[in-house]
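Deviation from plan, reported transparently: flavin-adenine dinucleotide complex.
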Amino acid sequence: MDNVGIMRIFSCMKNRYDIAIVGGGLNGCALALALASGGFTVALIEAHKTQGSAKTQFDGRSYALALASTRLLSVIGIWDQIAEHAQPMLEIKVTDGRPGEGPSPFWMHFDHAELEEGPMGYMIEDRHLRDAFLAAISNQPNITHFTGAPVIGQKGLGGAVEVEIEGEETVNASLLVGCDGRKSGTAQRAGITRSFKDYGQTALVAAIGHEKPHGGIAHQFFLPAGPLAILPLTGNRSSIVWAESHDRAAEISALPDEGFIEALQPAFGDFLGALSVAGARFSYPLNQTLADQLTADRLALIGDAAHGIHPIAGQGLNQGLRDGAALSEVLVDAKRRGEDIGAAPVLDRYADWRSFDRTTLALATDTFNSMFSNDNPLMRLGRDIGMGLVNAVPGLRRGFMREAAGLTGDVPRLLRGQPL
Ligand SMILES: Cc1cc2nc3c(=O)[nH]c(=O)nc-3n(C[C@H](O)[C@H](O)[C@H](O)COP(=O)(O)OP(=O)(O)OC[C@H]3O[C@@H](n4cnc5c(N)ncnc54)[C@H](O)[C@@H]3O)c2cc1C
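Because the crystal trials were delayed, the predicted structure below was used instead.
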């Protein structure tokens, strides 16, 4: 064999992993750490140069993490690093209304005191989560983190898959996981089609400083143009996710901070006193995009690559973490049984496990958004009576809270706080 042949074999061995993950966003990072804790060697391949060290400044982005998601983060060694920055959500108040008119008399109130497990979830800023992930990944010998490494191709090689990174480097693995977001190239290259629905809304996202303390209470106001979520952060700050029509959102985005607060005030109300913008402002066009399949030949999709949903219930990242927890468990169990982790029967178990949850969540977020984002008097009456009913029945109220906390259904081990 010539030198070129020997070099090629050497480079294949060097770049051989159990699992290659394309996309090092939050779901890709969490999955890599979970799989590494289960004894797999992992290539985590991210197009951008590392998005940390975000210790710099708060950029306004934050997430509502369900209680079950925080348990997963504990098992993979992240929660202890970020718990001090997390704000517990002690109560959630949901009301229907019109800007400037105040809430309707029908509303729902969820109080964590009714759940024996504790707070339904926590608010955490993106920078703290991302930094903790990057630090844990750099300390995990089972993970090789490729950054500034856009994946441009993939092909089957019999019992493996070869992933091509721009710049001609390749990585081989028994299984490829597409974690590359709503426009997943990994899914496209595998021929997986996806549905797409534009909601005609843009979410304006920012952290808002306020005069009075929020008391750990999250608010969801259903307004005619779309929902406004006010989610408590540490200190006298809340994160807002404010859905408006694309045109109105573009107008509001173009305003300076003072103009933004003026536009927000009628919808937000004055219950937290004077408001100010506390960080950068973002806008996200809202749509739903669902991959038609979760798996293909030696390929599984997780997170937004599998299902991008409306943020109305703050469940997108939580859903991706559930995908990752289920996939890790299926793969670890398969490895213990001596199965090929990329084989179709193994991947089918993952797809079967996740299909009910993903379909119901997509349907629920879609239905809630269309039911609540309008001013039709009949719809308003119907939804207000529905809210009044849920609020009046303790069993229903607790059911909603357990669902939001991620405690219902066939919960994977990691989300129960157990190791793989
Ligand atoms: C306004 C708004 C508010 C939200 N609030 C919440 C909330 O409160 N709680 C919650 O649970 N969820 C929330 N979500 C949803 C949550 O933000 C997403 O579900 C989650 O961030 C998706 O993470 P991901 O890792 O799957 O995808 P992404 O964050 O899209 O990451 C994909 C990664 O893949 C990389 N990539 C893409 N192509 C390639 C390639 N070819 N090669 C290599 N890398 C590639 C990208 O650079 C990126 O880093 C919200 C969403 C929105 C829009």
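The longest strand covers residues 194-210. We consider this an acceptable substitute for the interim report.
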